[in-house]
Automatic annotation (TrEMBL):
<dbReference type="InterPro" id="IPR015422">
    <property type="entry name" value="PyrdxlP-dep_Trfase_small"/>
</dbReference>
<feature type="active site" description="Proton acceptor">
    <location>
        <position position="188"/>
    </location>
</feature>
<dbReference type="GO" id="GO:0030170">
    <property type="term" value="F:pyridoxal phosphate binding"/>
</dbReference>
<dbReference type="InterPro" id="IPR015424">
    <property type="entry name" value="PyrdxlP-dep_Trfase"/>
</dbReference>
<dbReference type="GO" id="GO:0000271">
    <property type="term" value="P:polysaccharide biosynthetic process"/>
</dbReference>
<dbReference type="GO" id="GO:0008483">
    <property type="term" value="F:transaminase activity"/>
</dbReference>
<protein>
    <submittedName>
        <fullName>dTDP-4-amino-4,6-dideoxygalactose transaminase</fullName>
    </submittedName>
</protein>
<dbReference type="InterPro" id="IPR000653">
    <property type="entry name" value="DegT/StrS_aminotransferase"/>
</dbReference>
<comment type="similarity">
    <text>Belongs to the DegT/DnrJ/EryC1 family.</text>
</comment>
<dbReference type="Pfam" id="PF01041">
    <property type="entry name" value="DegT_DnrJ_EryC1"/>
</dbReference>
<keyword id="KW-0663">Pyridoxal phosphate</keyword>
<feature type="modified residue" description="N6-(pyridoxal phosphate)lysine">
    <location>
        <position position="188"/>
    </location>
</feature>
<dbReference type="InterPro" id="IPR015421">
    <property type="entry name" value="PyrdxlP-dep_Trfase_major"/>
</dbReference>
Length: 383
């Protein structure tokens, strides 16, 4: 890579942050209330409304949201939880936190998501839950999965970490979930630096999650601090410190207002990529499923055998042009932490893990930057 290319490197992702977020954080700092407080409550209310969820509980990150979801759903030792291996390792880690066993299922090749058919291959009498991921922002068919799982008493937890702004059956992703977990990591569209959210249709689950996120205190920290004479608190069970701060929530509120514009821009950029890639044999780009629309949190493509370069070679070709692509979604069953777990054959997961990469796509990406990426894809075929 030349010095000029280093200076003009195109990253795979950049968060969209501006003066509005700076002003929101400054206001919180001036207020003197920087821990979990009124901004967190406002962010919960606004996020629930945007996702058409009955209840939202802000937490420290999506992994803690997944942990709390399993706890409030009653999943514990001896239970099995079906998860995709084709996901960030947190999806498989979360069941182990409650003493349950993650069981890997394969995914659909076009979406990278679980389906009723892939879930059915690994369900046993010990299966109590499924964690179904909207991988890379591509909405899973939650209706179909719940139609299969609900009659069998299997709780479906939607891992919507990547999916803020995606839709399913004409509604926001997560709107039809009994319980869902969300991420606000900088790699996602909507970021609070770190942070997450649990949404649920069940008030009793929301209430318990609110207590568990702050040590299972009977009186919230916000209520104690708002009182001149704080009421005594008690701790009925072992809880956790999974709180979000008002600093983070202030950023989240601004980001939530930006979300529609972010999604529109990312979908426009993805449409341009799709137009170019359609003329390049050997490349298959992720697209909307029949039941919804993706926010293109990750614009991933599969490098097929007929392409003149394999995935690693194409990534190197892009890097030589100053373009930072990333290997596609990981396969958790191949990681040392989970390698010893028994599982059914996962041919689609392994193929996608070996053959996919993620192209640069972010809100501030200029037409000229995208043209550079497209030119590099073209020259891989016609050097």
């Amino acid at each position: 890579m030349s010095i000029d290319q280093q200076l003009t490197r195109i990253n795979v992702m950049q968060p969209w942050l501006g003066e509005e977020e700076v002003a929101a954080v400054s206001e919180v700092l001036r207020s003197g209330w920087v821990a979990q407080g009124p901004r967190v409550a406002a962010f919960e209310e606004a996020f629930a409304a945007s996702q058409q969820a009955a209840h939202a509980v802000a937490v420290s990150n999506c992994t803690t949201a997944l942990h709390l979801a399993l706890v409030v759903a009653g999943i514990g030792p001896g239970d099995e939880v079906v998860v995709p291996s084709f996901s960030f390792v947190a999806t498989a880690n979360a069941p182990t936190y409650v003493g349950a066993t993650p069981v890997f299922a394969d995914v659909d090749e076009s979406t990278g998501n679980l389906t009723p058919a892939t879930i059915a291959t690994v369900v046993t009498p010990r299966t109590r839950a499924v964690i179904a991921v909207d991988q890379g922002g591509v909405p899973l068919d939650l209706r179909a999965i719940r139609a299969w799982c609900d009659p069998r008493g299997i709780v479906v937890i939607e891992d919507a970490a990547c999916a803020a702004g995606s839709t399913s059956h004409g509604r926001p992703v997560g709107a039809e979930a009994e319980i869902a977990a969300w991420s606000f990591h900088p790699r996602k569209l909507l970021t609070t630096g770190e942070g997450g959210m649990l949404t649920t249709s069940r008030p009793e689950w929301a209430a318990r999650a609110r207590q568990l996120r702050e040590h299972a205190m009977s009186v919230s920290a916000a209520d104690r601090h708002a009182s001149v004479l704080a009421p005594p608190e008690s701790y009925a069970e072992i809880g956790f410190n999974y709180r979000m701060t008002d600093l983070q929530a202030a950023v989240g509120l601004v980001q939530l207002g930006r979300l529609p514009e972010m999604v529109a821009r990312r979908r426009a950029l993805a449409a341009r990529y799709a137009e170019v890639i359609a003329g390049l044999p050997g490349l298959r780009m992720v697209s909307d499923p029949a039941w919804g629309t993706t926010n293109f949190q990750s614009c991933w493509l599969e490098v097929l055998p007929e392409h003149p370069l394999d995935r690693e070679e194409l990534m190197m070709h892009l890097a030589d042009a100053g373009i930072s692509a990333r290997r596609g979604i990981m396969a958790a069953h191949r990681q040392p932490a989970h390698r010893d777990r028994s599982h059914v054959p996962l041919p689609v997961t392994e193929r996608l893990n070996d053959q996919t990469l993620i192209l640069p796509l972010f809100h501030q990406m200029t037409d000229a930057e995208q043209a550079r990426v497209c030119d590099a894809l073209l020259t891989a075929w016609r050097p």
